[in-house]
Design a protein that fits this description.
Elements lengths: L9 H18 L15 E4 L5 E5 L9 E20 L5 E15 L7 E11 L5 E12 L6 E8 L2 E4 L9 E6 L3 H9 L3
Parallel strand pairs: 1-9
Antiparallel strand pairs: 2-3, 3-4, 4-7, 4-8, 5-6, 5-9
């Protein structure tokens, strides 16, 4: 149903509705339930040299010996970024993150699956490492597909000291690579 906007207030009412919707969108990702004001969330990003990997069947680095190639296709932060406070006054950020991995099957793959490990690390003030967790996952090449995707959901909980907020922290994700795999990435940057 279409409702006409009159010049005697309809435009002002429409502007207020749009401004209210914009305010909700801007504050929704990092707002607590008690206070609608937006709080900063930690920056989440992949580590460039560790954002892709090529897994070979043997020590050869010939592309014809590739089992699979994988990359961090997307890091989707702030699906939910909540500042929590416990009854004893301790504060923390709980952050929902999705990491999307894309894998491409290589000519030597016979299993139909790309299996790999990745990490999530949290750094504090000055880039000081605080935590690092390692996860394993796999991308299945169903029905003999040449590519596959998996989305991993992570939920780091970052304890806050007095006066701190999300700007004090960074969250990094990347593949767990061997020295040889890292050297290959540095030799073949993407």
């Amino acid at each position: 149903m279409h409702l006409p906007i009159t010049s005697t207030g309809g435009a002002r009412r429409a502007f207020r509705i749009l401004a209210g919707a914009a305010a909700l969108l801007l504050t929704g990702s990092c707002a607590s339930e008690e206070n609608i004001a937006a709080y900063p969330c930690p920056v989440v990003s992949p580590v460039r040299e560790l954002a892709y990997m090529t897994k070979f069947q043997s020590d050869s680095q010939d592309l014809s010996d590739t089992l699979f190639e994988a990359k961090i296709d997307q890091v989707l932060p702030a699906r939910n970024c909540v500042y929590e406070e416990t009854s004893d006054g301790k504060r923390a950020i709980v952050y929902d993150i999705q990491v999307k991995f894309l894998a491409q099957r290589g000519p030597k793959d016979r299993e139909g699956t790309a299996k790999f490990n990745y990490f999530m690390a949290v750094t504090g003030a000055g880039g000081r490492p605080l935590t690092r967790e390692v996860f394993d996952t796999q991308v299945s090449f169903e029905n003999n597909a040449t590519q596959g995707i998996v989305i991993e959901e992570l939920q780091p909980r970052i304890p806050l000291k007095q006066g701190e907020n999300g700007d004090y922290y960074r969250i990094y994700v990347g593949f767990m690579l061997s020295e040889k795999e890292l050297a290959y990435n540095r030799k073949n940057p993407r």
